[in-house]
Amino acid sequence: MATRPLQTSSAGRSTPHNLNVLQRRYHAEFYKTVAKVMALRETYLQERIIFVKSSEMVPILKGLGARDEDFELIQKISDTTGPDPTLEYRTITSARYCLDFETRCIQRLEKRPCGPKTEEPYKRYDPGVQREFEEAPLEMQGNTVVQALMLFKALVFHKVPILPREKLDYTSHQWVCTVLNVRIFTDDRQGVQGEPAPGGVHSDGSDHTMTVLLGSSNMRSDSAVTYLHDNLETTGAPLWETNPALIRARVQHRDFLDTLIFADNHYKRCVTQLNACDPSDRALRDMLVIFTRRPKRDDHGLGHAETQALHTTCPLQIPLWLP
Hints:
Blueprint: H1 28-47, E1 49-52, H2 54-63, H3 68-74, E2 82-83, E3 90-100, E4 105-109, E5 134-135, H4 138-141, H5 144-157, E6 174-186, E7 208-217, E8 225-229, E9 247-252, E10 259-263, E11 268-271, E12 283-293, E13 317-319
Helix pairs in contact: 1-2, 1-5
């Protein structure tokens, strides 16, 4: 699949910036922010799930160093997403990063195709298809809100015990972080129905999953509700066939930067469809989805498709602060 070159776009122009969280160590506000994150981490440690509302996320990200102007720009970034090769109602871009807890840095990795989830609890709508998504533009990589979100997530899951997945290397000090910018749309005029989770009840194969709302328009209030299920729930089941006794959480991203983090191997997930308030216009929902997991072992079914090589044309390296 041909991809566009990485370049700036009309979605909002900004000089790419590398967030240096170490410079925040001399600000009293930084330590107030860390205290807030540690309180959230305590909840995550107990329940392996947190849902953080916009009103709390914005000051946390600013406390970690996100620039004021980047909050406005990130709300427009989904205009740069490209076609999904298998879903007509979704546009998407992708970027891979390495979170190295030994060297305490985040670096961008080279592009790799997204392989089929043959060994994971996911009933694929496109079984066996290896997909290539367009790469995230410079506005995404250089946006300090996105960088602060990766830092925030690392602080939350650092040293939190989880159920290990098969054939991932838990002896590694590195984590592979895939950042997807996803736009889902519904257009009743064209018979297009947006499905945030077309596979029904599923697990994404990561260790820690984070979903962040960037914006929505013409979205009905009952749309895109996320349910987390006990792992006993049947993979692939639509919501209306699930057992209510196995529902462990229900959340809905309504406001900019509403954020969900959960341990992916502790729950299964499904999301209800996107419905339009006004059927004469498109409904849109823009998300960041950030999957973080240990590197794949050599005997993993898709291990051959994964490398730790750094991105040569769009490098990024920012410091990672951990307590």
